[in-house]
Batch of 3 targets.
Target 1
Amino acid sequence: MTDEPVPHTFTVPASIDAVALFGSADEFLRLIESSFEASIHARGNVITVTGQPGEAALIERLLDELVAIVRTGQALSRELIERSITMLRTETQERPADVLSLNILSNRGRTIRPKTLNQKRYVDAIDKHTVVFGIGPAGTGKTYLAMAKAVQALQAKEVTRIILTRPAVEAGERLGYLPGTLSEKIDPYLRPLYDALHDMIDPESIPKLLTNGTIEVAPLAFMRGRTLNDSFIILDEAQNTTQEQMKMFLTRLGFGSKMVVTGDVTQVDLPTGAKSGLRVVRDILDGVHDIHFTTLTSHDVVRHKLVGRIVAAYDTFEAEASAPAHSETGHERRRSR
């Protein structure tokens, strides 16, 4: 009898705007209905869910979470609801409302917040640890969220400056031979960092902050020989560091500072034969107190939905492509020569 569809009712609190929760023309309710094996009907502020007990219970939990999010003043969206459903189905202890309504930074009407459970754990790790590694594919927010935390720390006067760096690996050691001033030579490699800054800080104040050294954006080579105190330091594209460069960077850490290292170990652009410092650093430092490693996956991609599918498809392709090399019989190897 417990497997029979059973109607459950959920009453929306009177303080909640039904349109904000249900969506225009009940768009959000229809999205929820299509995501579960259940039917949903709304009359006034009462929602009736008919389906398997487990599915109905999940929908009730989801509605509780969405009500909590609406109460924070955040507008619901299809993406937010889909991410909430994903979190509930993973049976995690964290509440979607706690993850998706965490505000890191607000600027010009735009709020930066984590959008997945792993992103929330990454942000929490930055709060709790001195050195954090964010490792994952493009679009997972690893650099963007780190920069938001850096700006937040600067505004709260927890640090006196932000230092953003990345290896200019495409130029190798030939920067001196490129045309133009030093700034013109290195800007193409640092442009993604400048672009993110413009999302987080009023553009008119950025030149002053750069001029007085409150924010420094520089190639990794410029870090050598320095001790960085009272700073929030971000190393981006860390997969393109050598093992020696990674050690050099990490040992720049000074008092009152925090470091975040981000990168994608599947996108190494180093010359053939050079070993990525990001690929080996976990083996060296895993377990060291106050150092944390966060791994983000294709499920954490927050760009266009298709980006996540592309990342997942490449992961599957590369896994399948490497499998025959290990399972090939001796006869097959001889035949392929």
Target 2
Amino acid sequence: MAKPIVALVGRPNVGKSTLFNRLAGERLAVVHEIPGTTRDRNVAEAEWNGVAFDLVDTGGFDPSVDETLDEKYLPQIRAQAEQAILDAEAIIFLVDGASGVSPLDHEIADVLRREEIPILLVVNKIDSGARGDRSSEFYELGLGDPIPISALHGRGTGDMLDEITQVLDREPEEPVDDDEIKIAIVGRPNVGKSSLLNRLLGEERVIVSPLPGTTRDAIDTHLSYEDVPLTLIDTAGIRRRGRIKPGVEKYSSMRAQKAIQRADVALLLIDGTEGVTAQDAHIAGMILENLKSVLLLVNKWDIVPDEIRDIQAYDYHIRAALKFLDFVPVLFISALVGTNVHKVLPAALHIQEERLRRIPTSRLNEVLLEAQAAHAPPSKAGSRLRIYFASQVRTDPPTFLFHVNNPKLVHFSYARFLENRIREEYSYEGTPIRLSFRKRS
């Protein structure tokens, strides 16, 4: 049974992201004192008293905003909040107990009263008993009894969660295994990550803007593709460490790195009009450091100049610039017009299958005997490396254990030679391989 959705809405800077992080149990949303930090819907799993639900954080909700305002993102923020409300089975309407009732609170309350779902009026920033009396003024919004809390300190959040589980009226669910394949969309800013996600989903799930840096949080989207459960993770663009601004952008880069760490397959986007940059190589290295599988996507192929619009030559350029990704497949796409986007998910699923491939021990050792016959193991100070036996000890990522006479005799070039021979037999396309050498006891 699908988990119910609880939407967290309110005007900007009332503490929605702080409450979201507390309920989710970790810092999932960027928290900053600047209003409007959260722009997209952010989703996390939460549980209370055995009742599991999906909590949806939204951008600051202003029902009266129009295109004439200086903040260009506000109309899109409103659309995201409205979509979250449409999907929700309950709404937490968060207001600011420190500043009191505002005209914007009244406007939002007017919108929410039209919804035929439970609405919890939650008064945040009630950090002391003296402030508790101020929550009573929110009765004028006509949404029932206010629930005073402090999202920052956790005061009153248990009572609020009790109310949520009551209005959801669901039986406690049995825990289920997380068998979804997690695919992270990563790349430097403004290469088209959010556009690709929207094209894959066929809906405006996240805000897309021509300005770099629009996506600040890592956003999970759950879907099923050919009966395979997937999680697509859209992330903030990753900049070089020295160019990361303090505050929001710093947290966004950290969150993108964490998205890579929890992914199975990373879709690495590069801008086809600019070619491979040093930052693209840095991100690729970050993916491999975490032993994640990779699909390389050359985006904006529809606007690449004709003089360099040659797939074979461009592929050679990529291989030369990213020599350590020679096992990674490349797709030339346009997220904007949809060119080859239909190939992305099938390719990612194939790479995941490769990641889970297991080689029979007997065949692995046959490959190693053939490799040693073709290229004798190295020697040092009169002692030659001897490989007695090897086995694949795990998948995800594929890991091979070699029993040898002396691990110190293994030169990195010979280890790479062995990896290449394994790949000649079993390609492990898009997937890094880990070789471990142990002295036989």
Target 3
Amino acid sequence: MAVRSFTMTCQRSFADLSGDRNPVHIDPLTARRSLLGGVAVHGVHLLLWALDVLAAGRELRGFARLRAQFERGVLVGEAVDLVWQQDKDRLLGRLTGAAGTSVRISLTLAECEASAWRGANEMDALDCEEHEMPALEKKAGNLPLALPPDWTLMFPHLAAGFPPAIVAALLATTRLVGMVSPGLLSIFSSLDLSYEPATPPGDTLNYEVIRADPRVRLVDMAVQSGGLHGTVSAFLRPKPYAQKAMAEMRETVGANEFAGQEAILIGGSRGLGELAAKLLAIGGAQVTITWRQGEADAQAVVAEAAALGMHMQAQRFDVAAPPLDQPGQSVPYTHLYYFATPRIPAGWPGQFNPALFAMLLDTYAMGLVRSVNWMAARSVPNACIWYPSTVFVEQPDPYFAEYAAAKACGEALCAQLSVQMAPLRVVADRLPRLPTDQTQALAAVDMADGVATLLASLRRHAELIREK
């Protein structure tokens, strides 16, 4: 077994080696708004590393067939375990991360001649193409192969006997998916390749889309380079979800219905926090939104409010270590809205992942405690802390057991904190599935209206604080 965590330095090196510079692999701010929720390690990087580990323990001179299924993304900094085992005439590899199996590999070995690489050492930089599903139907073309010499430093054991032409073609598959087809919004799903060593190596990877299924946003491509041929599959993920603009919601909210609120929204730079901040500001509240990574997102929301003549401010806030001082805050807060959330990876039916549960609990429970303690010294005595929970607590979803359990702990904590911290009030609302970056899916999913749902909750708790 081997264990590894990939760093941003690894990411940039592999992006240079492969030519796959899709932002989801190298730009943390862009990647945080993707379905993966963070910088994703290239699937082909994981595959080549797994083959390199295998080559360290045995002679590896090629394959007759190679299949890889990329089941879950692996994020930078996440530890992955690799295990290889023999199964009759095949070798099976499995990479497992914090949320479960990430990659499954099936390898049928063959002796292939590992002649020296005689092709290009440098590749032309590609623009990252962006496509919708209809444009991908029957898309075809070719990518020149290139193999920079430092591939031997990155995969030294593989370089000892594995055909470099195969490595160049594998690198071209990630360049194809990440930069060309589907391109910008891609997720590499799988590859199934066979190799005929008697055929001379090619100098391009030829590709043709053979299926583009809009129902699940799946693109299957036939690929061929010399004796290497097979299929590559990728998903076209949805674009980051854009919450409704403030100008579109002005008629929905009374101009003064939230007047008198001094509100801080933890995690208000995007998603439901962004939407709630806009609704409160339209309704006359004085609003501060916080960000931990997405300063640009937060400043964009502030600028949107300013363009409509509304004042909003933004500051950095990390629920793991709330700031000691509050720059520019002289009036005590009346409301704290707790939208802090980490990436929420799906679990696996029939399994409960303690590590995933602990990670979510740290934000949804411990982070809440830290924020409430921080708020208590900066608020009016009967301030309201609002905690968004989920209907998954009462309507279990087999893929989100850890998430629902962490949110349920947060609900129980709200009840305890309301007693401990009285007259400060800590209230929880169970929300249906609402559209955000995190709730988007490859297939259509029914969701409630975010504006109507949040506005009803904001109004309910605005009344409660007035009654208090």
